[in-house]
Amino acid sequence: MIIYALPVSEGILAISPMPGAGGDLPGDVAHVTEWRPAMVITLVTEAELQAAGVGLLGTQVQDHGTRWVHLPIPDFGTPPEGMRARWPEVSAQVLRALAGGGRVLVHCRGGCGRSGMVALRLMIEAGEAPDEALARLRHLRPCAVETEAQMDWAMQAPRGAALFLRHMD
Hints:
By secondary structure, the chain is an alpha/beta fold. The chain has 8 helices and 5 strands; from the N terminus they run E-E-H-E-H-H-E-H-E-H-H-H-H. Strands 1-2-5-3-4 form a 5-stranded mixed sheet, sandwiched between helices. Mean pLDDT is 92; it is low at 163-169. Helices cover 49% and strands 14% of the residues. It has one domain (4-168): Protein tyrosine phosphatase superfamily (Protein-Tyrosine Phosphatase, Chain A, Alpha-Beta Complex). The protein is globular and about 40 Å long. It has helices at 25-35, 46-51, 57-63, 81-99, 113-125, 130-140, 148-155, 161-168; strands at residues 4-8, 11-16, 39-42, 67-70, 103-107.
């Protein structure tokens, strides 16, 4: 499993394919643990977790002391209403972790569309210019953000939300 990481704010934001999707969940969880993320965000649906045989991914990540957040998005989709309602809270946690020098890993099934969409939105919310953030992300992972709808959701990010959060602390 490859982790595609780039500096964002004062921390590291990364995207990857789903740990365990290649058949080695313990090895992939160990690899993620060695990378030392403050948080792992899983974007696949429960059905995708079960189909890949990694239904215990969240438990295993948490057992290694990492915060796990499950925000299921259908493949090639954008966040459903339930996730959109949770997004401000999750985004604030991610931006705080990054501003404090932490690492955050975002994954979907292949580490492209959904992961890229969420990573791009977080980069913009952290204060990066949208076009520059997209270029940086796609330089690292050319398949990041696969559909126009995903691009639209990512680009709707309020730019510089991290600056607002710093003033709230």
